[in-house]
Specification:
The protein is of the alpha/beta class. The protein has 4 helices and 5 strands, in the order H-H-E-H-E-H-E-E-E. The protein has a 3-stranded parallel beta sheet, with helices on one face.
Amino acid sequence: PNRKELLFDSKGEDSIVTDLFYGGFENYEPETLSIFLSLLKGTDTFIDVGANSGIFSLVATKMVSSVNVFSFEPENKSFGYFKGYIRANGVGNIQAENKAVSDVNGDLTFYIPESSKLPLGPGSSKARASSSFPSAPPYVRGAKAEISDEYTCN
């Protein structure tokens, strides 16, 4: 975005990166990206829950070089892509965790798709994993989010 360069190497296996390759950032979730970039201005911390391949985390570091990014992605394959993209872009201000995040502590059922090719079509099966969700890490505990009704989606 805004002529900032990001490097990705997924050999066509990461469907998000494939979409970015063929459509560019201007066609990848354009409404979301526009709102995200507006909200990012003037912030010093970004928490990315369900980071997937880390696209928004990486965009945050390119757009606001001083931002501290805390990213969480529980699915191993997506997290592997994300870690590779962090290395490829030489980003040092992302703390990426291969963990799930929830608003409750305890054992919950978490569904992981058998395929990383999203979206899942009809009849796609999902692997079921039961996870124990510990309390939030110290750097997230007590974090407050400001919600603005300035942005609405219809």
